[in-house]
Amino acid sequence: MFTENTMTLTHAATLAMLSAAVKRAEDMGQPQCIVIVVASGMTLGQIRMTGAKFLSLDSARAKARTAASIRAASDAIPEAVGLAIAAATDGQVTRLGGGLPIMVNGTCVGGIGVGSGSPDQDKDVAQAAISALEAQL
Length: 137
Fold this sequence. Notes:
- The structure is a single chain.
- With 137 residues, the protein is of the alpha+beta class.
- The protein has one domain: Beta-Lactamase (2-Layer Sandwich), CATH 3.30.450.
- It contains four helices and four strands; from the N terminus they run αββααββα.
- The chain has helices spanning 11-28, 56-70, 79-88, 119-136, and strands at 33-38, 43-48, 99-104, 107-115.
- It has a four-stranded antiparallel β-sheet with strand order 2-1-4-3.
- A hairpin with a 4-residue loop joins β1 and β2 (43-48).
- The longest helix is centred in the first third of the chain and has 18 residues, at 11-28.
- It is globular, with a radius of gyration of 14 Å.
- The mean pLDDT is 96.
C-alpha cells in the first residue's frame, strides 16, 4: 500500500487548545510558553505568555516534538539516556516533564509542550489543552 488515511489537527483545534492552556496557566498564576505540533513535529501554534521565560519556548517545542515522536509523555524517556538523546538530537528531544502526545481514537495527531513552570504545572497546563480538545470530539 502506498498511501494511508491520516487525521490532522486543524487550526480551530490548535486555537481551542492554546486558549484552554492559557486559561489554566492564568488560573494558576504561572505564565507559560505553549507549543502545539502535528505528529510529524511541525509547529501548528505557539504562544509565549507575558512574563514567561523566553528560553522556555525552546524547551516547550522540544517537549511537544518529543511527545509526538515517542507517542508518550516527554518525561517517559529514561533518565539514563536523557542527556545522550538530547545531545544526539541537538536538543530536539528532551526528557523534561511537560510534553504530552495528542491522541485521537488511539492515533497520535500531535504533541503539546509547556514550559516556564514546574514540571507538574507544565503537565497540568498541557492536560488542560488536551481536555479541551477531547471535549469537542
